[in-house]
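Researcher: Can you fold this with inosinic acid in place?
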Amino acid sequence: MSARKGVEREFPMPIVVVVGGQWGDEGKGRIVDLLARKARVVARYSAGNNAGHTIVNERGEFKLHLVPAGIFYPEKTCVIGNGVAIDPDVLLGEIENLRAKGIDTSKLLVSDRAQVIMPWHVLLDQLDEKMRGNAAIGTTGKGVGPCFIDKVARRGIRTADLLRAEDLGPRVRSALEYQNRVITGVYGGEPIDADQVIARYTELGQRLAPFLGDSQSAVLEPHRRGEYVLLEGAQGSLLDLDHGTYPYVTSSVPSSSSSGAGLGVGIGPTDIKRVVGVFKSYCTRVGNGPFPTELFDETADRLRDHGKEFGRGEYGTTTGRPRRIGWLDAVSARYSVRFNGLSALALTRLDVLDGLETIKICTGYELDGTIVDTLPARQSVLDRVRPIYEELPGWTDATSEVRNFDDLPKQAQAFIKRVEQLLECPVDLISVGPAREQAIIVNPIF
Ligand code: IMP
């Protein structure tokens, strides 16, 4: 410690990051909704409307793709950071839908540095998937990948550019001069008319204008005043461009893993003190790509359709696609714990396992007679690994009404303790149903 007394830069309350630990759809929205009770600010920092949250509360069921889940608390500021790719049509539609159901959206702030998903991004996403044929990534087709490609290529359009036709016009014309050649020449598609885009996006810019601002101040100022700030990731970490199952990943820059959080709102790593990883009690994946513990039997159907009659089955929020289902994969999960620097786990959908005779956890992979205990980098290797399972006894009692860890069936407690050991991280929160109160708080995160 320095002897000299100077300016202090320590703030009393931690900034907490919440990330999905697997391939997405772990129930982050539900966990953020729960943690948001204490936070002053809830911010999204990456990805786009490829993400989707389903939130059930007293106002009904909501599917959000861009607006942070904290919007249901009127006193919170909700921030969409510079790291998010924004489709203005989708965002404005979401805002209108929330307003129509009586939700106050006046505290929503959208970064003026965020990239905009333009019509050519959506078209290119779809054309590119078609061209890849059998090797398609299985994208959500929302234009997110091409938008981030343009960000990195320095050809992107940012939300601030939408505010004035004088700024937007030249940027759209220059982007389309290039993109129309790609659309027609590479993919054989129809060119996009620049004038129509400029007129439409100037109008969208006017509607978006009241929400635009600086995400850095929106996050840091309350933090300095001693308020809690929550940063929410989008897709699961195993879809991370660097650490995920490349090339079957999402193209978000910054990534949805915890390392992208500061970058995506405009703060540095020293301001972030805790990272919570949300994991399902089993595993799901949408889109193509390796999934070592994938199941194709009746257990998969049972887990997928649990609660389907209440809209709770394993079907994508964004695309409606049935999710691929498998047992909890502790190998990839531990890898995710490590590269996210997780300080706590939130385990979701424990109740979905109720009634199973046995529950399996993958503790290693078998590859040509050897045991592998970390996620291989090569896709062709990942495709060949075989899961090694540990089998744990299941439980018959329903867990959805349980609110204390000690009241869970002993087998469920043993399952959770084993998850902690294998993932090398404590489980601080368990969810046992979609409603806000259906949670077991083992250790308070805030
Ligand atoms: P993209 O993000 O639309 O380019 O899709 C790339 C990959 O990420 C595909 O496998 C998608 O299914 C997957 N993906 C993107 N967003 C989500 C999400 O919110 N949940 C689950 N998977 C997602």
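Model: Folded with inosinic acid in place. The longest helix spans residues 165-186.
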